[in-house]
Fold this sequence. Notes:
mainly alpha; 13 helices; 66% helix; 0% strand
Amino acid sequence: MEAVLADLKEWLQDRKQHLDLFDETKTARLDNPLYTLGGLVWLSWMIVIVSGVILMLWYIPTTTGAYQSIMHITYDIPLGWLVRGMHKYGADMLITVITLRIYRMYFAGEYKKPGELSWMILFASLVLGMISGITGYLLIWNQRAFWAAKTVLTVPTYYDEIPLVKNTGLGHAIAYIFLGGPAVAQAAITRFYAIHLGISVLLVILAEVFFYRTRRRRLNLSLFTIALVIVFMTWLSFDRLTEMGRWANPNRTPLPILSDWYFLALYQLVKYMPPLWAGIAPALLIGYGMAVPFLDRTKETRPLERPFFFVVGLLALAYFIGFTVLIMLNIAVISRDPPVIFAVTVVVLTLAFIWELAHRRRKALRAAPQAPGRATPGAAPAG
Length: 383
């Protein structure tokens, strides 16, 4: 046991030295737009934090006051519409650039040694960002936010379909903890407000401790890029942030029920599955994301040199886009789509596995020493 702990400590010490939260160690690659994503993560995060602190001055976290306080901020407070827009579109940008950076790191093999810890922190940040997003989404307290939160919180109840935990009531207990009761009401908005705020405060403290100890530069972006981001989000806020929707009504269900854009693919995936798998699937996705540095044991970083993981990444990207489009256009058919999707997944992963085995075999043959006295093909005979 002591040996295991010693190895783990050594592993953590080595990975901490190579930790890269916002691409702050990749300044030599800033001519490539993909390596500005780390700086954009930090910039969008700071926009969300600053605008969120300002919104707290007027926001009222109650079922009777939340909607009206948002209306007051948007239409009565000078530049309140801009602050709210910066918060909303800053959060969208944060999720977008984290997702893009995850795909960059995945396809470029940056999760391999010594980047495992950086990858795991980034992937966990995406999960926490989505949790923060859904908790903040409810705080508007309009119809769309209310019913989206209600729908998302049905997912934990699917855990009660798992045989080993079926009699524990774990799923309903998780939903009850988030809701603070049997329904989305005042206790839920209080908890969501606390979680939304708490995630941001905790992560800011950890990030600042990291930068204080490493003395690294937080933001490797040009002033032009920063100004362009600010101008773009100001335009979005001015042009689009006008519709508030209706006050939340527990007795009137809107159709279709849609959450924020980054939850749509997961929501559609869960709809396609029976309750048992709907409970397991999100946990499996998170588990795969956190474990991929330890599953891919090759030293290769080029995508085509690790075929199976390359295809898994492409499949995940295709399903993310495809499921999002299906639900936004409301053209999904529950009775038709799941068997087709399952068959495509099995066939594609099987072919990817065969490709991986064939690729490794070719590499092994190329690397194998030739038998003594056996001429190399194409070589001239001796003498």
